Amino acid sequence: MSIATVSRVQRGLHGVTPATRELVLDAIENLRYRPSSLARGLASRHHGATGIVFPDLSGPYYADVILGYEGEVVARGESLLILGTHEREESSELVLDLVGRVDGLLVMARTVPDDVVRALGRDGVPVVLLGRPPVGRIPAVRERSFESAVHLTEHLLHGHGHRRLVFIGDPSLSPDVAERWRGFADAHRRAGLEAPAPVLCRFREADGHDAALRALSEPARPSGLVCGNDEMAIGACGAAERLGLRVPADVAVTGWDDIPLARFLPSHLTTVRQPTRELGATAARLLFDLIGGSSLAESESLPTELVVRASCGCTRNDDSRHQEVAPT
Amino acid sequence: MSIATVSRVQRGLHGVTPATRELVLDAIENLRYRPSSLARGLASRHHGATGIVFPDLSGPYYADVILGYEGEVVARGESLLILGTHEREESSELVLDLVGRVDGLLVMARTVPDDVVRALGRDGVPVVLLGRPPVGRIPAVRERSFESAVHLTEHLLHGHGHRRLVFIGDPSLSPDVAERWRGFADAHRRAGLEAPAPVLCRFREADGHDAALRALSEPARPSGLVCGNDEMAIGACGAAERLGLRVPADVAVTGWDDIPLARFLPSHLTTVRQPTRELGATAARLLFDLIGGSSLAESESLPTELVVRASCGCTRNDDSRHQEVAPT
DNA sequence: TTGTAAGCGTTATCAT
DNA sequence: ATGATAACGCTTACAA
Question: Would you say domain B49-142+276-302 falls under CATH 3.40.50.2300?
């Protein structure tokens, strides 16, 4: 019994007599033989694994994306390496290290700069981006943040007649936030209004709290706060409460992401639901296309859903009304 | 310049002249040389990676554990493979496959049966368990669910004078729940009472809802519902509301895990906080000890914290009072 | 201190 | 249909 025959049987190649196949299978069973993934990878020049680089795992957003991605990966019998960058200094090196252990990489927003992504592309590593714009020929999967921002802002502007809306969040910190801000400003423009400068802040609840406090203390108090994500919106609601302002009677507040907490918030947060799972799954499909040699891997953008609850000023008949944002 | 010298330089071994070291380093830089992790692993007989097997990623619990684990892993310059079992049929095979790609494995509760864990142990693979009892010589990291259950139940029994408490959850579905049920029953016994049979249900909000509906429709209505986790407790609160019962005036409700939502719940959920992050980090340290050849890797159990809010019947002075459950 | 060469456990290319 | 044997790109004695 030669080693080559075993290799053939074990990979299910044809060119083996059923008799010997059985023989080999038996031996494999008896000896509890497991091929070495290391040796196999070295010889066949691929890892049988892909990686995903995400910024953090607090909050359900990234967990869901990973879940969607993982489903596709497991369905293909591949393995999945993960790396959280957590705003670490050495993130780029960690990614560069990770890339040596996989056949392809999904890189999410807020992890490593475009330079690094570009470097990966130059090395010929299949890469897909998520939640950030394409870099060169590297495709990206995104949700339609711009469109949903326009939709949401117009709802506030025209549905509720707001005239002093303020955007809370820092467009320079994340491509998503940038898109949302752009949609916010664009909706204003279309309505013949000018959007005031965004109140810059980071992504966490406390950041939104502080920013809202600042915004609401301005002489001309805003009538509505459009926050870059739900965490920030929750902080904003807290700030309003602290100032003795009611939501939405005195000030409207909206978020992004529809985290589970959103529907339990006293103010019943109006927000935008992302197709998180589908985002991850789509990215996986794209990445495997790329790995498979397909060169026609195109960037995709997925539709979002406006979740209208009460914090925008709507009366809350049913739990929530959803409006899908149509593709543009 | 020989290949061996490069290998030495690259791994920072001593026995290399500073001069040649510089030379090699330069070449590495210029040629953008990256050692093949596959070849390196094959030769040195280790993967430089460990794996973590978890049931699911919905809810913050597992995400936090993974985060704690990941921190330790990255600090050691190792990689991390993940596998969610999601109650899939082929989970065991997936784990058996994963184990061939790592130097060690962290296996969480509710993923694969003890048989599979035992099989891994027989193969000599370093394994650490989390949230489930040790299997043979395979160590486990756990939170003190039993102790916290006793603590919580006694709070309800003696602090609030409850006499008809019901436990919601299925002890047979998860070792954690089993421990909690055991503590619940034990606290009753110590008080000279007998705990009624648990109302069996699965882990999600809807499951808790249904179970609570059943429990609260009994002729002798329970005065308190001790739920196996926060999701179930949220469902239970919903069920109470649906029956026109107020929490905690008509029925007390408690949970486990202290998910972010818990403090925003209208009923201000009293619950038990797990040291999730620390659980993951501890498991990682244990696993690396094991991989390092240490045979004195002992199981550990970490203290939990009772988070008293309002749903147990306590008046809500400050946001929440915490009581650490002392080691036993 | 540096170089040589024998593995590591597969796959892949030839012969047979 | 099967068996030898040369890669694959490192680590690791051992030699120089």
Answer: yes
